[in-house]
Design goal:
The chain folds into three domains: 201 residues, FAD/NAD(P)-binding domain (3-Layer(bba) Sandwich); 111 residues, 3-Layer(bba) Sandwich (FAD/NAD(P)-binding domain), CATH 3.50.50.60; 115 residues, Enolase-like, domain 1 (2-Layer Sandwich), CATH 3.30.390.30. Helix 3 runs antiparallel to helix 4 and helix 3 packs parallel to helix 5. 28% of the residues lie in helices and 25% in strands. It contains ten helices and 23 strands. Strands 1, 2, 3, 4, 5, 6 and 16 form a seven-stranded mixed beta sheet that branches.
Length: 465
């Protein structure tokens, strides 16, 4: 390794790259990180963190509506979009400072600029060539926008947090995490929200019951769905508004169009293919089970390999590699019980197998469901409902999956993920004293399954990853 400038050179200053760099440096490696944007990557600057602040802001109007039933006179609060943007911008700058401190505090060299891979051990940034025993690609992703007429009049999630004015009418195209979360954000902030998507309901990869209940709740809150429809032409009007011609023949007049149509890895244009790194048909960097590309000295983690595009997963991947290289720990990385949350309207949390995945595997399993109005909504007589669902292996009594919709479910799913990781059983839940009155107590009060599915084989182990 003394033949190189560094033991590890990381391309990308986001969560996965910085996690790998810090852990490697803590074990004595000489490390550098190259970043061509802002430290912290998508999560800190254009994703999880600012999104959660905007979600918090969007919830106040709903809470104000509940106040009279609880004896409070809410008054007439007003919302200021510029104030929200300014406050979030300031906080993100503070968080970026932590990334800088974390790297410099561990003697990690930082280079600001687009890095190009020159050969299996060399990267060029700002005209300077750096060599390293290993190169780690943690370059993340970027929004993908379909090629339709007038797409230049639309924005993506990279721009949505910094709009100079609040759009009173918005069309959101897409039904994944980003599209569904921003539909809830703008609806909560008082906009007229249209959401179009190819599928029948939002969040196509999630459990079917969860998708159905979330769609019902979003429509109840005022989101206008356009399932099976998509924009064909976008045009800017003389008054600054936007007209969108839809495939169905409808024309929507809005103030903004948000393209939440997916993200792709930033894998092109940095020399990867030229040195032999394979790029897949989804623009992903192709790696082995242990993150090695076809070039033995080049590895990749995070969104650019498109396994699980989640910040905690990228961090775990980066740390696992650093521990393997510089702390002699074996690596056999798996993805057991990856929990996730969608901060939608209302939020949801999910972990383990979906009902559809188990049916596809022709497995036997029991389904337990609960659909009820949270206690918070009874006095104001709101019709909003929560939904809880667990899937159980009848042969072993083990939990196979958990899917929750309603207030605080993103917090609750973290604990349920730990239960699945520990191999908890339905009997364990039954034997747990309920915390009353809470929504979570329903998870330990299920008695009889709502449905019994008799498959051809035993359910798979969720810990297999």
């Amino acid at each position: 390794m003394s033949d190189y400038n560094y033991d590890l050179l990381v391309l990308g200053g986001g969560s996965g790259g910085v996690a790998a760099a810090r852990r490697a440096a803590e074990h004595g490696a000489k490390v550098a990180v190259c970043e061509d944007g802002q430290w912290g990557g998508t999560c800190v600057n254009r994703g999880c963190v600012p999104k959660k602040f905007f979600v918090y802001s969007s919830q106040f109007a709903r809470d104000f509506a509940l106040m009279p039933a609880y004896g409070w006179e809410p008054g007439s609060p007003t919302f200021s979009w510029p104030d929200l943007v300014e406050n979030v911008t300031r906080e993100l700058a503070r968080l970026r400072g932590f990334y800088d401190s974390a790297l410099s505090g561990n003697d990690v060299d930082q280079f600001v600029g687009t890095a190009h891979v020159v050969d299996p051990h060399t990267v060029e940034v700002n005209g300077r060539r750096l060599t390293s025993a290993r190169i780690l690609l943690a370059v993340g992703g970027k929004p993908w926008v379909p090629d339709i007429e007038g797409k230049e009049f639309a924005i993506t999630s990279d721009e949505v947090f910094w709009l100079p004015e609040f759009p009173k009418r918005i069309l959101i195209v897409g039904s994944g995490y980003i599209g569904t979360e921003f539909a809830g954000i703008f609806c909560g902030l008082g906009a007229e929200v249209h959401q179009s998507f190819r599928s029948e309901r939002v969040l196509p990869e999630f459990d079917g019951d969860l998708r159905e209940k979330l769609s019902e709740e979003m429509e109840l809150s005022g989101v206008i769905f356009h399932p099976g429809d998509k924009p064909m032409k976008i045009a800017k009007n003389s008054d600054g508004s936007i007209s969108v011609d839809m495939q169905s023949g409808k024309t929507l007049n809005v103030d903004q169009v948000l393209m939440a149509t997916g993200r792709i890895p930033r894998s092109r244009g940095i020399g990867l293919e030229e040195v032999g790194v394979e790029i897949g048909d989804r623009e992903e960097v192709v790696v082995s089970q242990n993150f090695q590309t076809k070039v033995p000295s080049i590895f990749a983690v995070g969104d650019c390999i498109r396994r699980y595009e989640l910040t905690p997963v990228a961090i775990a991947e980066g740390r696992a590699l650093a521990e393997h290289w510089f702390n002699s720990k074996p690596i056999d990385f798996r993805y057991p019980c990856v929990a996730t949350a969608v901060f939608s309207l209302p939020p949801l949390g999910t972990v383990g197998f979906t009902e559809e995945q188990l049916r596809e595997r022709k497995a036997s399993f029991h389904i337990y469901r609960a659909h009820f109005r949270p206690m918070k909504y009874t006095l104001p007589d709101k019709k909003n409902k929560a939904f809880l669902k667990i899937l159980v292996d009848p042969a072993t009594d083990k939990l196979l999956g958990c899917h929750l919709l309603g207030p605080d479910t993103p917090e609750l799913i973290q604990v349920m993920a730990a239960c699945l990781m520990a191999g908890a059983t339905k009997t364990n839940l039954d034997d747990t004293f309920a915390v009353h009155p809470t929504m979570a107590e329903e998870l330990v009060l299920f008695r009889k399954p709502s449905e019994i599915v008799e498959g051809e084989r035993q359910a798979p182990d969720p810990l297999a990853g």
